């Protein structure tokens, strides 16, 4: 049983909105090693890629996009290393991306020689601006391009029958594409692949660039789910980016709209403002009593590894993981947290003011929950003296001493550690 309250909260329980909750986790696919990597100032070398891959496996990802092997020698070599050194666990399927161009597709299948299982991910742009300005193709030509390359996938896969293949197609810029046209392209691709309910293909719907509110995108996903042919043989995947800062909302609403699978990166790395932050969605589910099937119980260690691999810092206010997200400086918050900790019993449902999740569930401690600066009050000061030095002050002394601390902090403008507070207390009240 989860210690977190499921949604909707008490009081709304009689109203059931089955399509307005996410009650089971999606299939997760990490694209850190591909979309995340292609956005880095210094793309990962093979050693950093391997470290990231092992971290993703340890977290519990069962589908991992490991690169774009026809795009660079490092990507190709990394894939060969995974295969030749048997680094892919039996319950993990790797995924690779290729553009819809014959030489790239041939090189991709060459890089995959000998892999036990793989998802091969084909994409081409479908949006009007890409058709008109970048590709110089009309609608019929785009459909023919997707069909021809889907057929090539099928033929090349048939040459390696020992591998268990899954095909994936992305209409790049789906979010900017006319719905009936994206349906036409998707139907053309699935007509070639002929998936079945037992051997599904994946149709991945990207917000290559976020350009609408999340509900509009989720409505598009729902429309596509209702209208595509062979729905029962397709895994519907969603690949949000975060240009409007709404990647997480887009993902959650898309799941409510019926999507089965999410692609994204740890802590939202990725092109421009990033890909969907998978940690955010997973822990949002967790705090509503739904087990995400991903293990973030040592989140700081994961953050440090990701920072090393990406050579990019995670912001101190990043949801769930930032250095400051379990810390309260304000006096009234500190007071409420202190009282709630004192009243809490072991098996109580988690209902703590200002703490949406128990930091201990992520391997964080309570130590950083209360920190003292000029915004703080007596609650925080006495909490630190008590928890760090076992010093319980009577209420009147708490009030008096907090004014002393306040004067010092107003003068310096700096944070006061538990040690600073204790030393000040000793100076002020010590009787020799
Ligand atoms: O954002 C995007 O459209 C992509 C595709 C290649 C899936 O990353
Ligand atoms: Zn992307």
Automatic annotation (TrEMBL):
Binding site for Mg(2+): 35, 239, 241, 275
A biological process from GO: L-leucine biosynthetic process
Localization (cell): Cytoplasm
Pathway(s) per entry: Amino-acid biosynthesis; L-leucine biosynthesis; L-leucine from 3-methyl-2-oxobutanoate: step 1/4
Cellular component terms per the entry's GO annotation: cytoplasm
Catalytic reactions on record: 3-methyl-2-oxobutanoate + acetyl-CoA + H2O = (2S)-2-isopropylmalate + CoA + H(+)
Keyword Amino-acid biosynthesis among UniProt keywords: yes
Signal sequence segment: none
Family note: Belongs to the alpha-IPM synthase/homocitrate synthase family. LeuA type 2 subfamily.
Protein name listed in UniProt: 2-isopropylmalate synthase
Range of the intact protein held here: 6 to 437 of 565
